[in-house]
C-alpha cells in the first residue's frame, strides 16, 4: 500500500438503505451485524493479492474476546467470523463487501487494511448495531411491521391514569436524532460493569440479555451516576417536574452537556421511555408497558400490605406499596440461557425500586416465565411476578397500641389492563393475558401457588398471616364510590358513597371519610377533605350519600399527577369494619392542534394551538412547549399572555418538516393553575 492514507468511500446512502439505518443523520457508516456492507478505497495496486483487513473495538482488542478480527479476501461469506469478498477493482481502487458474524460485539469499530507485512493503514471507523431483520441474530423479529414499530418508530404513546380511567400521552423517543447514538455508546462506557472490567464488559456486548440488564442500571442515577435521577416526593425544585418532559432527546442531551451528571427528575415512565430510546437506537426491539394497580412487593412474599387508621387515612407504614400505574419495558430477544420457550418478549425495568445483585437494575425476566410462575429463573422474576400478581391485604392499624386487624384481603386487585401501543396505529393494546391466566380462574391460582412454593412460602409459619376465621368472616355491608359527573381539573368533584346492607336485620354504621391528594404511586401528599356520618340501614337497604369536593378546596392541594384517593372506613356496630376506597385521576382541560395547510418536506407550514381557560379566574405564566422528530429541531418554547376566565388563546408557529411520512407533533401546555396539559397530532408529510 502506498504511504498515503487510503481514502475510503463508505457508500453511506446505499449501505444505510440496505441496513435500515437511513434515519440516522451521521457522516459515519452505521450498519447492522450479520449482513454485508460495501466500501471502496484507493491506493492499492493488484488488490486481490494478500490484503488483510483488521476490525477492532474496545480498549484492548483481542481475538480471544472477539473484539478483534483479521480476515483476508475470500470468495464466499464466512459462516462463523468476519469476511471480505472482492466486488470490483479498477486501476487504483477496490470495492469490497465486508460481512460481520450474527453474534458480533456491537459498538464502534476501527477498520484498517494491511498489504503483506507492511504497516496497517486506517480506513476509518464505523458503528455496528443489532440486526432484528436477520434470522441469525438473537434479536431477530420475523414481522417486518414489528421491526418498523419497535426499532424504527420515533414516536410512542405511554399509558397512565388508573385502571378505571386509562389515559395516554405521546412521547418522542427520537433515537435517530443528532448525536443520540454517540450518547448511547457513551452510556455503555460509563456503566459500573465497564469501569470495573472494560475488556470483559465490551466482550459481552454481543448479548442483548447482558446489555439490557446493564442499561436498565445505567438509565437510573442510582449506583453509577446514570442518566436520570428519580424523585417521588411531589417537590421538584432544582430540576424539571417528571411530568413536564415530552421526549428522551432533551434528557440524553442534558446528561451529556452537564458532563454526565444525572438529569433531574424522572419517574417510572421517564426511565422506561429513555431505555426505549437507547435500546431502539442500538437495534434491540423495545416497547413500553404500563401495568395498572402495580404492586411493589419489597419483601418478596408476593403480598402487599396496606394500613389504614380508624379515620380511614391510608398510612405510610411498611415498604410495600401499590401504584396506580407503573411503566416498564419489554425487549425482544432469545434466551439461550433458559431455552426456546422463554425467548421473545423480556421484561426490563430501569426504575430504581429494589436492588438486584447489589445494584438498581431489573431484568431481563422472560414474560413467558412470569405467566407460568417460574419465578426462580433469571433475572428478577419474583419482583416482576409480584408486580402483576401479588395479593393485597388491608389492615386497620392502631398506632397507640401497635395492634393490627385484617379488614380484608383481595387476590384480584393487582395487575390490571396491562397496556402498550399498537403496531402501526395510535391505539392501546391490552396484553394482560400474556402476563397471567384469567384473574380468578383456577389456573391463575395454581400458578400463584406454584410461585409461592418455589419461593418456599407455602409451609413457612408467618406470624402476620391472618387466621382463617379472620378471613372467613363475611362483612355485613358492602360499599363503593360512584363518580357522578365529569372528572376534570377546574371542576367540582361529585361522588356518591353507595352503602348496602347485605343482612336481613337493620345495621347501624359509622363512617369516617377522607380525601387526600396523592402521587401516582398513591403516596399521600395533602389532605383535601374529611367528613363523617352515621346511618342506619334497613334490612337489604341500599343508600346513596352525595359527596362534593369543590375545586377551590382541592386546587391548592392537588399534585401534578392530578390524583385523589377517597376512603371511607365503615365501622359496623357488632360487625367487622368495611373499607371503601377509590383512586381518582382527574383529566386536564383539552388543548387543540390544527395544521393549517399541507405539510411538505423543506416547506414552511403553520400550526395553530388553541386553549380555553375553563375556570372563572385568570391563568398566568402560560408556556407552550413543542417537539417532534423530523418536524422541528430540538424543542420550541413559546410564552403566552395571561388568559381571563373562559378566554381562548390561539398561538401560531411555523414548522419545516425534514422527512416525508407520518410524523407526530407533541405539545405540552402549562400555566399556574394547570400543569403539563399534553396532546399530540399526527402530521402526514408529503414530498
Plain-language structure description:
- With 687 residues, this protein is an alpha+beta fold.
- The protein contains 14 helices and 37 strands.
- The protein folds into four domains: 7-129, Sandwich (Immunoglobulin-like), CATH 2.60.40.10; 144-455, Coagulation Factor XIII, Chain A, domain 2, CATH 3.90.260.10; 474-585, Immunoglobulins (Immunoglobulin-like); 591-685, Immunoglobulin-like (Sandwich).
- The strands form nine sheets. It has a nine-stranded mixed beta sheet with strand order 1-3-7-6-5-4-8-9-2. Strands 19-18-17-14-22-23 form a six-stranded antiparallel beta sheet, with helices on both faces. A four-stranded mixed beta sheet has the order 16-15-20-21, with no helix packed on it.
- Helix 7 crosses helix 8.
- The radius of gyration is 29 Å and the shape is globular.
